[in-house]
Amino acid sequence: MDLQLNGRIAAVAAASKGLGKAVARELLQEGAHVAICSRDEARIEAAAEDLRKATGGEVLPIVADLTTLEGCRHFIQTTVMHYGGRLDILVTNAGGPPSGPVERFDDNAWQAAIELNLLSTVRMVTAALPHLKESHQGRVIAIASISAKQPLNNLALSNATRAGVIGYIKSLANELGHTGVTFNAVLPGWTRTARVDDLLENLARTRGVTSAEVEAGITAAIPAGRMARPDEFAAVVAFLASGRASYLNGVALQIDGGLSQNLL
Ligand code: NAD
After folding, report:
1. Cβ < 6 Å from ligand 1: which residues?
2. Structural domains of the chain ordered from first start
3. What confidence tens digit (pLDDT) does each residue in 114-130 have?
4. How much is the pTM?
5. Contact (Cβ atoms closer than 8 angstroms) between residue 211 and residue 204
6. How far is the CA of 27 from the centre of ligand 1 (A)?
């Protein structure tokens, strides 16, 4: 199947590593030109170089802090300027908010999580929309989390802000579906990024077990019996970004090996 991604212009947020970088790589392999961002100049330049070497594709690294309105606008505007006013695909993403018991989070913690995970999505989409509407293959894919469908303990900040992202994406799909732009969310379950490796090691230290034992406890609840590889997640995002996904609009798609037990 030709995904019709060759020559498309994509902006993939928060992509110096992990899921964002895997998505950038997949889009590059399909022939798209990809702008990526994160806060640290050395890290985003290094990620861009890795991606160029791995795919031979054209990568534009941009330094932007997505917790600010200026950072979100800067990411989109720099991308659009570099590619002669064009933008076809926006993949929103950011780091995860801290974990902890629900009662521990004060007003500042809530404010920060809303800026990081909900407002960053709204701000990037708002800046990108005029350009996406001019594309024949306008796509927004928001990376959220399975916690939006099946809230997890100790992750109240994530549970609440990701659910907000789904509500926002659904509103966009409803109100702007007629423009031809599609708006969808993807909900990763356990995906083996460096962040998850760190998490497993931290849990292992706290519990006095090995990280393989912690992982076995987690994967026992996943029907697929294992965590995802980042490239498995990225392949689904690339399909949603493709010309072939033109009638998929307003979905919140879990990519979790069957972990979430909701019927819809
Ligand atoms: P990661 O920590 O490996 O990567 C996060 C990326 O975001 C990095 O490139 C980092 O530089 C960038 N970033 C963080 N804060 C930023 C900011 N303020 N401005 C710009 N860039 C910023 O995480 P990951 O595993 O790739 O996860 C990506 C997202 O998906 C996170 O929100 C995470 O909570 C969520 N998620 C991940 C999993 C998983 O299993 N990996 C599962 C569910 C949800």
Report:
1. 14-20, 37-39, 64-67, 93-96, 116, 143, 145-146, 188, 190-191, 193-196
2. 9-189+231-249 (3.40.50.720), 190-227 (no CATH)
3. 999 999 999 999 999 99
4. 0.98
5. yes
6. 18
